[in-house]
Amino acid sequence: MAPGVELGFAAAAAAGPGGAWRLRSAYFPSKVGGRPAWLGEAGLPGPAALRCGRCQRPCAFLLQLYAPLPGRSDAFHRTLFVFACRGPACYRGSGPRGPFRVFRNQLPRRNDTYPEEPPPEEPPPGPAPAPPGRLSGGAALCRVCGCPGPRCCGRCRRAAYCGPEHQALDWRRGHRRSCGQHPAEDDSVDAIPEHNEFLFPEYEILIEPEEPEFPDDSTIDPGDEQVAVETSKDLKEQEELGATGSAGEALQSLDEETLEALAKRETEEDKIFQMFKEKVAAEPEQIIRYCRGGEGPVWVSGENRPEEKDIPNCLCGAKRIFEFQIMPQLLNYLQVDSLGESIDWGTLVVYTCANNCGGAHEYLEEFIWKQDYSVGHVLPS
Any idea what DSSP says for residue 19? Predict the structure, then answer.
């Protein structure tokens, strides 16, 4: 039996220490924005692996999905991490990777980082945890993005960074005032700023199964359905008649074969986009569609869809299969709208190793495909 589709929805983290705890690593969160809650502490992707494939600037953490695989003891804990460039110019055009990076990490139930028992329902008492400057094993994290920070401030030797861009950003954000002071003199010296100018807003991702389009106990009168189809057809014909005018005059100069090809293409595009709109309309707030090895992605267009040859095999030699897609509704939560160019996509589709290769000591890069809307088709925000 094919697995069912699960939907992800963005939810504001609960106020108080409890909400902050649930977005930290010990609770194996699925979340959007903020800094990554790393799963395993070994083999984290380095700064070079987390740079945009187009502008080469550091990518920001976009989201992570906790997606363990039932029946796989080596993937008792398993999380997928997605990073995205903050530069709008890098989002021009559909295709592979580009401004995105995707990584997968997994751990067995018995590991060196987490206890075998699940975390408590109620978080520990006390204030909300501050963003970690180091992993529990001692590895330093960048004060800006929360990714591995092999570079440190040459003056205080305490502040860690992934590269010169974030070191300069943190210096302007306040490290210039605290650098050189001793923590014993001021508790705020090592406090990590939020850096909301680079980080995406943080939300928890809640996962729910997709409801069937027509429940088993639902009844649809065939006559009503036929009337609805005919009404929809009439409305569409009226819209098409009203949209003629100058466009229709221009088309008269084209030969019959070209006109027929254009009409067929537009009809197919309309069908694909209509199917996408129907999937979205059922749950308008969905930001994730997850179905590893089952139902494939819902495309926004018939253009720029990857063929099998476009999806590279994993380094282990196995094929990659569809695991989840990121919907355009996520953009409404990211605060990326601007008067000029903005970060944008129709859908982002993630493919992962069919064999789920790898061990607990590595983060393996997977494959992501960006598809844009075709001309004239876009969802309202």
Answer: H
The first and second tokens of residue 169, run together, are 């950003």
Residues 305, 183: Cα–Cα separation, whole Å: 54
Q: HSE (CB half, 13 Å, CA atoms) of 262? A: 9
Q: Could you give the percent of the chain with pLDDT greater than 70?
A: 78
Tokens of 319: 């094929």
The predicted-structure confidence for 234-286, as pLDDT tens digits, reads as follows: 444 444 444 444 445 544 555 566 555 545 556 788 888 888 888 889 999 99
CB-count exposure of residue 351 (10 Å: 0-12, 13-18, 19+): buried
Q: Please state, in angstroms and rounded to a whole number, the distance separating the CA atoms of residues 375 and 10.
A: 28
Dihedrals phi, psi of 172, to nearest 5 degrees: -70, -30
Structure tokens at 112: 């060196």
pTM over 0.70: yes
d(CA 184, CA 178): 12
The whole-angstrom separation of Cα 156 and Cα 140 is 14
Instruction: Tell me: pLDDT of 111 over 90.
Output: yes
Phi, psi (degrees; rounded to nearest 5) at 361:
-110, 25
Q: Is 378 within 8 Å of 328 (Cβ atoms)?
A: no
Bridge partners, 8 (sequence order)? 207, 288
d(CA 362, CA 316): 14
pLDDT in tens, 208-219: 999 887 655 544
Q: Which two tokens stand for residue 66?
A: 């906790």
- In 10 A of CB 83, how many CB atoms? 25
Q: Give the whole-angstrom CA distance, residue 62 versus residue 287.
A: 12
Does residue 297 sit in helix, strand or coil? coil
Distance CA 273, CA 278 (A): 9
Beta strand segments in 48-202, E: 60-66, 77-84, 95-96, 100-107, 151-152, 160-161
SS3 string, 339-357, reads CCCCCCCCEEEEEEECCCC
Determine contact, residues 36/147, Cβ cutoff 8 Å.
yes
